[in-house]
Design brief:
Length: about 100
């Protein structure tokens, strides 16, 4: 995978950024969905590989790449959400100190 651009949520052939209006808890929910998808792919592959079947190596590589990408997207989502939550806490703390 390519190195992520500054502030990008993920970079493939282009860089993608998380919408600034999205609430952090919705981003956490998305991270959970992405990671669950990656878990499902890897669990299915593990089940398939434990059977005595002929597996196309190119298809296996693509499936593993997809799982890896979903994990990176989930991790990036969690990082963005954590940053926004930290910023919200700081703003709340500053507001309370200003009173």
């Amino acid at each position: 995978m390519k190195k992520r651009a500054q502030g990008a949520w993920i970079t493939l052939n282009a860089s993608y950024y998380c919408a600034p209006v999205c609430h952090p808890l919705k981003i956490v929910d998305d991270a959970s969905l992405l990671l669950e998808g990656a878990r499902g792919i890897t669990q299915s592959l593990a089940d398939l590989l434990s059977q005595d079947v002929d597996i196309n190596p190119d298809d296996l590589a693509k499936a593993l790449w997809a799982a890896s990408l979903l994990m990176e997207m989930g991790q990036s989502s969690a990082e963005v959400a954590y940053g926004r939550i930290r910023k919200m806490r700081k703003e709340i703390s500053n507001d309370e100190n200003a009173k």
